[in-house]
């Protein structure tokens, strides 16, 4: 881990740890309020959480009060529309954060899909030492559950029409709401946006957000990088679908070195913004899924980011891929699915994922370690000189698989230019080797040969094979560019052959 990363993470975790030290020691007593909490379920008269409904004007919200049906009318609650409730997280400064208004606006900006957008404002309970705020999450969960139950009793309304969106500690609040609501049916959906890690990681499902808490639970993990055994966002899967953008541990554009750029944009506010950047990225990915609906980001099921980076996981078969954010396909599976994807550093976050597979024939005794660059030409655009590092010496006949992501939609891939990039040094060595072993005289016994490149586009699930444009010259040479085109002719021949057989 580079030290520039550690600074903000350390700072944030320091706050967590320090507040844990001041609070009571985490342990069984941390969640000891459960029995009392269950008792109060039926009798809750007033909530400490303020429920604010947002009408079309982007005002401050209209307060809905438990057991006051008149407030539903005053605020313009429409029981035939779905209810989306935003639940914020832990607060250091006692202020509602800016992303809340951005998310409200994004949810309200959907023409033809009106909904009741409510904020569960529990800031007075969240503005405490972390450990105490954690303890309050159960109470707030009960209050949310009480409000939903009361809605069902007061107006024609169903909990299956409810979508809770919880950020950080708010994700666990939503989970508790889902388990406290009781009854035979569950809340429709819960989205956990970088659900908080400290004091929740590794706990039993009833002590955190889990797939049991709603008919469908999706989660986005964006800041799970560990420091001193703790991470701000929870690492373990907590939903039916858990998305890990860029591996989930840290996010592009959130590097501490970009602080200067942020200061220019946001003034001194930038310091806290930079610290929260990766954590809050989960929210902005979700907002992006609402604002750029036509550019959905796809996540692909994979065991870890390493395999994903080799391009090994771009399958959509049997629900192995899903859409990140609001428009996720709600197919609950018994087993939680972990999905990976790459994103850009800012909105729109979508990238296009490609897997490439190349197999060299290396007739040199020693493995060679060249670096390559590929240019991709598609029906809608092109991308020049994408560097490729294979990470190890090229040995004979091994297949190399790697992931390439493009910010831009180049359409259907039609041509690949493959260039052996480095350096004059290699060219010299190569020439020397060629002089000693004059392969040129025996074309079939060449140095490094690349005949085909196989590609798969994640977003379209299209598979393609590319052949050297000039099939008589398949040798790679330093600094020389080779053109590969689709091998349709070849594959047709192949098909004819197999049919004939
Ligand atoms: C409530 O919502 C429904 C469905 O969107 C709509 O048809 C109806 O007009 C709304 N009622 C009011 C009073 O706005
Ligand atoms: C690699 O493949 C070539 C051509 O298919 C074959 O002649 C050669 O023996 C293979 N080399 C190794 C080490 O398997």
UniProtKB/TrEMBL annotation:
Protein name: Hepatic triacylglycerol lipase isoform X1
